[in-house]
Amino acid sequence: MILKPTNKTSQSNPDAGVIPLINVVFLLLVFFMVAGQIQISDPVELEPARSQEPQVQEHPPLATLFIDQQGLLFLEQSPISLEQLTSELSGLYQASEAAEQSWLQIKTDARTQVQQLRPVFQAIRESGMTQIHLGVQQGKIDEDR
What we know:
Layout: H1 8-12, H2 19-35, E1 49-51, E2 63-67, E3 73-75, E4 78-80, H3 82-95, E5 104-108, H4 114-127, E6 132-134, E7 136-138
Parallel strand pairs: 1-7, 2-5, 5-6
Antiparallel strand pairs: 2-3, 3-4
Helix pairs in contact: 3-4
C-alpha cells in the first residue's frame, strides 16, 4: 500500500491566509488608539456663536464655563450656581501659578439672551478674573438673528 504525502498546513488550517489581515487590523486599531485625541464632551449641548475671525489663544484656559440657553451654569463638567461661581473662580485664579496669563473660556449658546449673561459677568468680575474669551465657531454670521 502506497500512501501519498499530504500537505497538512493547507488542510489543517484553511484560515491561515486571514491571520496576516487580522494582524494588520489590530495594528491599525492600536495606532488610532494611541494617535487619536479623545476629548471630554461638553456637559450641555450648545449651538456656539459664530465669528468670521476667531482668535486662537496661546495658553489653555484656566477653566471653561458653559452657559446653556436657559442660563444654567456648568464650571468644567459640574453644575454650579451663580452664588458659587465667584468663590470657585476666585480660588482657581489665586491658585494659578501664572495669574497674568490666566483666562476664562465661556462657551454659551448663541440663543442665550444678554440679560442672562450680565449677572454671570458680574460674578466673574468679582472673582478677580480679568481675561475672558467667548468660545465661538468660525463661519458666516447669520444676519437674521
